[in-house]
Amino acid sequence: MMENSKTIRSPFFYVGDKYKLMPQLKQLMPKKIEQYIEPFVGGGSSFLNSKGTSYMLNDIDSYVVELHRQIGSYTGKSEELFDALFEIIDFYGLSCSYRGICVPEDMKKKYVKTYYSKYNKDAYIRMRKDFNANKNDFLRLYLLLIYGFNHMIRFNGKGDFNLPVGNVDFNNNVYQALNNYLDFVGEHEIEFFNMDYISFLEKIRFDKNSYVFLDPPYLISMSEYNKLWNDKKEDELCEYLDSLNDRGIKFGITNLITHKGKVNQRFLEWSKKYCAYDVKSNYISFNDNTIKADSQEVFVTNYA
Q1: What is the pTM of this model?
Q2: Which residues are CB-contacts of 136 (< 8 A; sequence separation ≥ 6)?
Q3: What angle do CA 30, 35, 40 make, to 5 degrees?
Q4: Which residues have a Cβ under 8 Å from the Cβ of 237 and sit 6 or more positions away?
Q5: Pairing with 221, which of 10, 99, 105, 207 sits 20 to 30 Å away (CA)?
Q6: Distance in angstroms (rounded) separating the CA atoms of residues 124 and 144
Q7: Are 298 and 255 spatial neighbours (Cβ–Cβ below 8 Å)?
Q8: Chain-centre distance for alpha carbon 255
Q9: Taking the alpha carbons of 287, 293, 298, 304 in that order, is the dihedral positive or negative?
Q10: Residue of 117, 124, 150, 158 whose CA lies nearest to 225
Q11: Number of C-alpha atoms within 13 angstroms, CB side, residue 201?
Q12: Percent helix, strand and coil across the chain, each rounded to 5?
């Protein structure tokens, strides 16, 4: 079985995921977890770095959930997955530094900081167009995520994937992350759901060793993933966590307390009822990719 002492990186890379925070957060999770429950699973860095017996994982984004299911379906068949991914990469002529298919040196010298995006742009646009013609092709969607700007999943009002190319490619980190993900999924009992978080939590039969880990959208952030979150939803979540606490169910929740001059006062006041820990934040702005020194991220639990 995979040793879980090191931090496992999710193969669904995206700005703001909890990968860099997991060494801190793992230390604050309960020592004994049987049923690990995550209502906002996102890329999955959190569950990949927890020690549960069984996992119930949910996200309201159907594309996110289906990516987990599709990639996870290759458990025990990693060579088949990589063959399929590399076939797509070669079909479009994308760079793949993991396999030594690199950007020419003259282009690297000409575009020192952006050579991947310059090299892959046309191929990426063709791949994006083909995916939008058949949105059930989740291996293409995965590669759009890998080669796309900030590794995000973003669709326009017409329902088309519209993320531009990023300055990245399929490298050794992607290869290792996929292998680690398949190993973890193969070693654990995992079930994915695509529901709103309350409907998901309402269907669960909790026991004394259940643990709910929450990484919800951040109210005071303008991240792409947080645009549908508002004051009412923040209050609703806090009230629901109070009800879990009343039932003796352990939870831990991350949130952003201060960011770019804003303060999440409602969450700050609510958190005073529980145990709140400062975490060394890796919160990054979608717009300029710099870590915000004035951002304070916290982890709140109802257990010591």
Answers
A1: 0.91
A2: none
A3: 85
A4: 197, 214, 216
A5: 10
A6: 7
A7: yes
A8: 15
A9: positive
A10: 150
A11: 19
A12: 40, 15, 40
Residue whose token pair is 């049987």? 34
* Rounded distance between C-alpha atoms, residue 134 and residue 86, angstroms: 19
- From CA 264, how far away is CA 256, in angstroms rounded? 7
What residues contact residue 180 under an 8 Å CB cut-off, 6+ apart? Answer: 2, 8, 9, 11, 48
The count of residues in the chain is 304
Provide the H-helix boundaries in the chain. 22-28, 45-48, 62-72, 78-92, 105-110, 115-133, 138-147, 172-187, 197-202, 231-246, 265-271
Q: How does the average pLDDT of the chain come out, rounded?
A: 92
Which residue carries 């919160």 as its tokens? 283
Euclidean distance between CA atoms 179 and 187, whole angstroms = 12
Residue identified by tokens 């958190």 is: 271
Torsion sign over Cα 25, 30, 32, 37: negative
φ, ψ of residue 216 in degrees (nearest 5): -75, 170
Tokens linked to 172: 């050794």
Measured at the alpha carbon of residue 207, what is the angle toward residues 204 and 208, in degrees to the nearest 5? 145
**Residue 3 scores a pLDDT above 80:** no
| pLDDT tens string 244-279 | 999 999 999 999 999 888 999 999 999 999 999 999
At 287, is the pLDDT very low, low, confident or very high (cuts 50, 70, 90)?
very low
